[in-house]
Write a structure and sequence with these properties.
Elements (H helix, E strand, L loop, with lengths): L4 H13 L3 H8 L3 H11 L32
Length: 74
């Protein structure tokens, strides 16, 4: 069924006021599925925030002989 822009606005307004989809469909003589689809299109869910990507830690290469810490063991 083709729904005009005016009817879409009515459905959105009624939804914002708390009128159920079934009542709206019955009053406007539109299938309930059509009313629910219009409501979903008008009130789409906000985009989920992106999660940060974590990189695998890299290990430092082993130090070659002769280069290292100048601390002495006691």
């Amino acid at each position: 069924m083709r729904v005009t822009e005016g009817v879409r606005r009515i459905i959105e307004d009624w939804h914002d006021k708390g009128v159920s989809s079934e009542e709206t469909a019955q009053s406007l003589r539109i299938p309930v599925d059509e009313v629910k689809a219009i409501i979903l299109q008008a009130h789409q869910a906000p985009a989920q925030p992106k999660r940060p990507e974590f990189l695998e830690p890299r290990y430092a290469p082993e130090k070659s002989a002769g280069i290292g810490d100048n601390r002495r063991e006691s």
